[in-house]
Amino acid sequence: MYYAYKYRLKPSDAHREELDRHRDICRQLYNHTLYRLNEYQDEHDELPSMTTLRSELPDLKKWWDGLSDVYSKVLQTVVERLFDNLKGLSKLKENGYGVGQLTWKPPREFRSFTYSQSGFKLDKKGGQTVLSLSKLADIPIRLHRAIPDNAKLKQVTVKKEPTGEWFATFGVEMDREPPEPPENPEKCVGIDVGILKYAHDTDGTTVGSLDLSDERERLEREQRKLSRKQHGSNNYEKQRRRVAECHADLRRKRRDFLHKLSNYYAREYDLVAVEDLNVKGMMESPSNSRNTASAAWRTFLSLLEYKCEREGTHFVAVNPRGTTKECASCGVSTEKPLWVREHSCPACGFEADRDANAAWNILSRGLEDVGVGHSERTPVETALPAHTPVSAKRVVEAGSPTLKERTASAVSE
Ligand SMILES: [Zn+2]
């Protein structure tokens, strides 16, 4: 299993200068390799292999001052990157997309470089954890969560965000295979994702939506300021950074919330049932707010799916048809417009919150899908749990909607 761990670097001004210098040498090498690729193609009427271009690196160093300042494996990954981009391009072409050539990279578009296999390690210097990069520097790093002991660090990519911040992303391999999901899952949960509440589950936990109105307001304010600056001026550039920071802040907060919520469900339960949004999306008429919401749900579900796989938890995406209309107790369907928040069954008298009823239907479909015989098909037989409303803020702060979270061993995203 391969994971990515991302951390913020805390470079000094001197570090920043060096990072930028290395980044720019890599960028120039990328552009040079692209030039060589085209030149070779003109001469030989075919593309050179990656090995051919990589083998030119030692000769290049003879006349290119500064190239030897960069760790040699880093230079090799620059050549590999060009070939990766080339592959991506030809795949798009195969699929009938009209795409042009690979283009020369200006500084703003070349933000990262990669140490692969060697030349980097995490170290302690003067009581501070540092990322030690060969031929570059020991850069302080904020390890806000630990990399598990059984993880092998395969590579690290250092990247400068448009905000000017530097991050390090480790590619990590775990020697442990993910555990098999249990044959008889005991702790099972159905989750209904919704508009008014972010999630409502069969254990009675309802999680509110993340309130990012302050962040959004700030973004709009900074964007308005940007529109008043003269394009290309120093002030414009400064303001552009501020806008980028706002975007990054929003993105970070949203993802952080989704990571924590999905971590919680994947770790706390043996089986997690949700609605298949690919089917749901086709059934519902598109509107802008819905699209935005469903994009966030999709992210949540894809995070949830891979975390479930990692934790050995069943992940079931069920057919969403009629989950709100159907009575979770007797199965009779009744029309229910969106504003009706309560489920009250005319056939059997079962009453529940609209989303709770849907969550129960999702769970029982999920149990059927994995073929688990479940005696407690109906929520009536089990006592309905009382609602526990939880704000999204609490999920972000506590890392979970409840306090009884299992102590998780592996911490990763
Ligand atoms: Zn009923």
TrEMBL record:
Keywords: DNA recombination, DNA-binding, Metal-binding, Transposition, Zinc
InterPro entries: Cas12f1-like_TNB, RNA-guided_DNA_endo/Transpos, Transposase, Transposase_put_HTH
Location of the Transposase putative helix-turn-helix domain: 1-40
MF-aspect GO terms: DNA binding; metal ion binding
Spans annotated as Disordered: 206-240
Pfam family, one: Cas12f1-like_TNB
Compositional bias segments (type: Basic and acidic residues): 213-225
Any one Gene Ontology BP term: transposition
Highest taxon of the lineage: Archaea
Probable transposase IS891/IS1136/IS1341 domain boundaries: 174-284
Cas12f1-like TNB domain sequence ranges: 297-362
Family: In the C-terminal section; belongs to the transposase 35 family. In the N-terminal section; belongs to the transposase 2 family.
UniProt protein name: Transposase
Lineage summary: Archaea, Methanobacteriati, Methanobacteriota, Stenosarchaea group, Halobacteria
